Amino acid sequence: MDQTSMPGTTGVAPPTPSTVNDASFLLLFNGMPGPALLIDGQTQLIIDVNPAFIQATQYERHQLLGQPAGDFPLWGHPRRWHAMMRSQTRQGSLRYQPIELLRRDGGLLSYQVSIVKLNQQLLLCLQPRASNNASDQALKDSRSRLRMALEAGQMGIWDWQIATDALHCSARSAELHGFQAADWDGCASHFLQHVVAKDRQAIRRAFIAICRGREPRYRLTYRVVVNKRQRWLQATATLHLNQQGQPARMIGTLVDITDQRRNQNALVESEAKFAILFQNAPDPYCLVHNQRVIEVNQSFARTFGYSAIDLIGRQPEEIGLWSSHSAHRSLQQAARGERELHGFTETFSTSNGHLLLCEVGSTRIRINHQQCVLFSFRDITARTQAESALRASEDKFARAFKGSPDSISISELKTGRQLEVNDGFCRLTGYSPEEAIGRTVNELGIWIDANERDDLIRTMDEKGGVYGREMRIRTRHGKEILVSVSAQPLTLDGLDCMLLTARDITEQKRIEARVKHLAYHDALTNLPNRLLLSDRLSQLNALHQRHDLRGALLFFDLDHFKHINDSLGHSCGDAVLQEVTRRLLCRVRAEDTVARLGGDEFVVLLSGFTSTGPALAQEVERAARELLDAISAPMQIEGHALQLSTSIGIALIPDHGDSAEDLLKRADIALYRVKERGRDGIAFFEQSMQVAASERLAIESELRRAISKGQFCLHYQPQFDYRSQRVEGAESLLRWQHPERGLIGPGAFIDVLEQSSLILEAGRQILHQACAYIAELLGAGLITPHFRLSVNISPRQFRHASFVDDVLGAIALHEIPTSCLSLEITEGIVIENINDTIDKMNLLRSHGVHFAIDDFGTGYSSLSYLKQLPVDLLKIDQSFVRDCPHNPNDAEIIRAIIAIATSLHLGLIAEGVETQEQLTFLHQQGCEQFQGYLFGRPMDASHLRSLLQNPPDYAVT
């Protein structure tokens, strides 16, 4: 055979086998029945192909020669070709390796290939694989069923030929490793290229362990990353040995466990979250398994006082957690998982025995594949108590709302629409609930000022509420009344509302106006009284100082006026006083003031003089003479021809003082000088008249000695109760047991005592004497704790910082009931510092001490302050009692005082009751308690003791 017939390609030398004859080799090569090809062992270029190979592939011979055998499209799986060639390189020859030959038209032919090395060349002989016998069909069916099973289970299989490193795998296995089945080259090392590096090392170690016989069967979990996505795979591997006992192949399965792994991680994370939530939950939680506690959280331990050690492994009933036997069945059923609890309410016992009302829930859960029951508790003890208190409060509010005598309405804040009104509203306004609800007060025409509501809301926003605002409203029938209004914000079911309370104060204001007028004016003449005179004088002084003016105070006393009362009667006397008033008013200017101080005493306050010295005295005297002459002129009173004379004392302003007290005192001194001269005249105050001041100093010195030597004592005047016809109390009256002048009444020294600080120590002595006397009478069984002894308190004594402690100290020292002591204060004390007065009175009243307002009606009689004070009793001054049966003005004042006491639910006692006529009148007006000569003059302690031992029969009716 010549050179050209030798198999080869351009640039490729023909084979030169040393063991075979070339001609013989070619004859054999070309005569092979099966496809065969000869390739270069180094370059894998095709040197020659036999006719059977050409017939099988349908390629022309020249198309194949010189082509790289692995890269030319001859093989169904190029990667498998390369893997096979690598195995051949290691082993030298291969036998019966499965391979698929790719025809030119794309068809696949299945062959078994054997490779023989001939020097530097490789001979590949292909033999067809049989496929038509019954066993092949059975195998094919078996493989089909296996494939369907694997596909159904999303499972792949693989088969690794250890000797050749060839790896046969299913399409699913290739897909799980990131390969398309058509691209898989059959190389085991390539199969692992997408495996995470760390896991790849673990796989190799595992396979080495299997091959060394340590693990005949192995299960391995690892990760692959394909297209930047990680998935978890689980592989099984089983080792097969050859006849020599050497590892030959490894077969296994492959499954994607990414979802399973993710679920496991989620489960672990969920259980971790559950543990965190369980322990840190604000509500108590308890975990039960097989009816025994296996875990409690921190809130459970705090709430019930049990530690986890106390509870774990025990049943709840063993611990005593369940306080109620009636609840055992439901709780045990829940602990066994037979039922779930929702909103179950029961009482549970803490470790120290306290009972808690709890809302209980239970849920069946699985933890670590164990069926458990999770109990949750919510302590609703405080909430239940609060709800109960709220219901009680709402019930009280509803009853108060409906039953209140005041008008109460609830309106929507934004629109003013009435939402609810009570009976008091209907009584006050005349509108029925049906007429009022759903409409505004402006629509009803109740508020005279339509802008009043906006102003109320504005004030309510600024100050949180409106209290006691006075305003006028119009009723359904057109009547205008004065009301006291209070408003507060209120929220009802999330709706902003206004709660409005109104009280008709028309009559109250009328009474207050009457009392206030009486407080500043004389009831008979309607002239200013001493209080208003003092106010006018203060204003006058300010005016005089600004304009350098002068004035004068004229103090009048009608001479022998008592004779008129005694001979002609009080009505005639009153008429005389009214006529004197008229004449004085006719003679003075509008800027001057005429006042009546009481009885037959008048004061005229002249102002606006520009002169000084003697000239001023002449002007004032001329004016005084005119007034004197006016009063002296004859008058006809009730058919009687009368002619009066008067005495006038004059104090110049500011020469003789600028306060009402000083001017009245000095004008009074001058008045008495006139009386000393025979009355019916005029006298100016002179400094020589100040001798009285020296006498005052002497009295003060003697009073100091009296205090230090205990010369003050108490006398007592009984207080009679008409209902019981018994003496139910007494007033303590101060007396001075003078070593030389005998028993001296308070009129001679009380002013000096009050004006100095001596009243403080004297007041303490009086308190202790009174308390000691109460203790003595109680000890003798002469009185009960209902007996009340009153003690007069001076303004300076009341204002002192130690007053409250002094009173309580005396009570405690003598161990008497506080109910037996009553403190009498004047209206002047009350108004001087109303806040301090209220604080002190409230403090003493909280200890049971009683209070009475003395001489009520002579000062600042007002409901406004009386409503704020813890007062028990009003005392009607004897100046009103004296002429009450005959003097309509006094009678009217008494009726007003009784009306005030009745409206404020205060006790009442009349002073200075001397006649049966006075008693009858007062009792008819509603007064039940009396004090005066009719029932007993002031007496010492021993006489009152005797009177209580042997009560007289007063027989009053």
TrEMBL record:
Species: Pseudomonas abyssi
| The organism's place on the tree of life at top rank | Bacteria
Q: Name one GO molecular function term.
A: cyclic-guanylate-specific phosphodiesterase activity
Q: What class of enzyme is it?
A: hydrolase
The protein's name in its UniProt record: cyclic-guanylate-specific phosphodiesterase
Q: What is its EC number?
A: 3.1.4.52
* InterPro entries found in the cross-reference section: Biofilm_reg_signaling, EAL_dom, EAL_sf, GGDEF_dom, Nucleotide_cyclase, PAC, PAS, PAS-assoc_C
Task: List this protein's GO terms for biological process.
Answer: regulation of DNA-templated transcription
Q: In its keyword annotation, does this UniProt entry include Transferase?
A: yes
All copies of the PAS domain together span 393-444
**UniProt domain PAC: residue ranges:** 214-269, 467-517
Domain (GGDEF) spans: 549-687
Q: SUPFAM superfamilies given for it?
A: EAL domain-like, Nucleotide cyclase, PYP-like sensor domain (PAS domain)
Record's NCBIfam families?
A: GGDEF (TIGR00254), sensory_box (TIGR00229)
Per UniProt, the keywords (alphabetical) are: c-di-GMP, Kinase, Transferase
Positions of the EAL domain: 696-952
